[in-house]
Amino acid sequence: MLHLSFKVSTAIHPSAKSRVLVLGAGNFGSCLADHLGDSDHDVYIWSRDETVVQYFNLHHRNPGYLKDHLFSSNIQAVGPDIPDRNLIQEMDVLLFAIPTQGLRDTLSALRPKIDSHKLPLLIFVNKGIETGTQALTLEIIADTCGGEVARSATFISGPSFAKEIVRRQPTSVSVASLCEAQAKKASELFHQPWFRCYTGGDPIGLELAGALKNVYAIAAGMSDGLGFENNTRASLITRGLSEMTRIGTAYGASPLTFLGLAGVGDLFLTCSSSSSRNYTVGYRLGKGESLETIIKTLGSVAEGVTTAKGLKKIIDELGVDAPIANGIYQVLYEGKRVQEGVQELMSRPPSRELDLPETTGGPAQRLLGKLRSSK
Ligand SMILES: NC(=O)c1ccc[n+]([C@@H]2O[C@H](COP(=O)([O-])OP(=O)(O)OC[C@H]3O[C@@H](n4cnc5c(N)ncnc54)[C@H](O)[C@@H]3O)[C@@H](O)[C@H]2O)c1
Ligand SMILES: O=P(O)(O)OC[C@H](O)CO
């Protein structure tokens, strides 16, 4: 395996050491804690599992995730109780690496401990849609912490398998916030020669791209699991991109965001690698396993499975043509056989290739209005 040796770049870290609390000690939380610890920041990582906390502090290893990796000695694990007010108020950065379905409860528990007069930089890396409410993370933040906090929240997304990042394999990500200065701060915190950050101002598009690519990765995995080969996967990725851009535009996001790292970059990655959990779910479904068995044995979250539910509601409400996402929903939740789903997808009449819906802003406009009017 090619091994490049990158040095931590202090030139792009003009700011002093930051104190960072990472919430969530799974694959991605641990990986990002390591990245920041290696860049010489003081890092705390919260796990709700006491065994993980003790093991991490004793051995600098995570017993549940990235088991072979020796983590930076600049990380201290805390938990299992939610971190206390003193620790929270000492932090410059709170980094949330918790699956989307658990975020609302964690934010609600943390909010009273955060000093409103000295807001830390809040960074979110989850990629999903909340089941039941169809809320994006921006909306969950607004609901639990208010509009001011949501307006300054920053989101990171893009092609980023945790197990490659801990080995310093080069990648690039998108960093977006409604507040440009916060996106710049987050980018400066994370940017390293092996981890390039590109900033942008469309957090809604970035969030949708990250959440939706997980659903299309399930589709690509299914196709491979059924035994279809390269042409099929390439056409699925391309039509998936077209579909997610159509949904995003109808939602009120910028279509350009879907051409970036959070869109096509991450879509391509997860649709073409067995390292992706979402691809793996699809592959195993294609091989005939039940969803229940797959989830029980996966050992880690595949956000596309729950996101498919919220996405189905969004598609129906917006009236967007989304045959792939609809097909995945039917296979996951309506008992449709995978082969039947493929048959239906391919038997549709021919249509125009590239059309974007007219949008007057869709749900994004309502969400942004809500953020502007709430404190
Ligand atoms: N793994 C990656 O390569 C990667 C890359 C980019 C983004 N992400 C995103 O980051 C998020 C986290 O993914 P992951 O790979 O770390 O998942 P994971 O399954 O590896 O770990 C999830 C962690 O969150 C904790 N957790 C789950 N529900 C919780 C709750 N309700 N409250 C508190 N903690 C809870 C679990 O105990 C576990 O420690 C997901 O949204 C994922 O899509 C992952
Ligand atoms: O393993 P997956 O499918 O959750 O993908 C992980 C990341 O989102 C890749 O960027």
From TrEMBL:
Residues 20-180 form the Glycerol-3-phosphate dehydrogenase NAD-dependent N-terminal domain. Substrate binds at residues 127, 277-278. Its EC number is 1.1.1.8. One of its GO terms (molecular function) is NAD binding. Keywords: NAD, Oxidoreductase. One of its GO terms (biological process) is glycerol-3-phosphate catabolic process. GO terms for cellular component: cytosol. The keyword Coiled coil does not apply. InterPro entries: 6-PGluconate_DH-like_C_sf (IPR008927), 6PGD_dom2 (IPR013328), G3P_DH_NAD-dep (IPR006168), G3P_DH_NAD-dep_C (IPR006109), G3P_DH_NAD-dep_N (IPR011128), NAD(P)-bd_dom_sf (IPR036291). It catalyses: sn-glycerol 3-phosphate + NAD(+) = dihydroxyacetone phosphate + NADH + H(+). The keyword Oxidoreductase applies. The active site is at residue 213. It comes from the Eukaryota. PROSITE patterns: NAD_G3PDH. NAD(+) binds at residues 24-29, 162, 277. Residues 348-375 are annotated as: Disordered. Pfam families: NAD_Gly3P_dh_C, NAD_Gly3P_dh_N. Residues 202-342 form the Glycerol-3-phosphate dehydrogenase NAD-dependent C-terminal domain. SUPFAM superfamilies: 6-phosphogluconate dehydrogenase C-terminal domain-like, NAD(P)-binding Rossmann-fold domains. Belongs to the NAD-dependent glycerol-3-phosphate dehydrogenase family. HAMAP family: NAD_Glyc3P_dehydrog. This is Glycerol-3-phosphate dehydrogenase [NAD(+)].
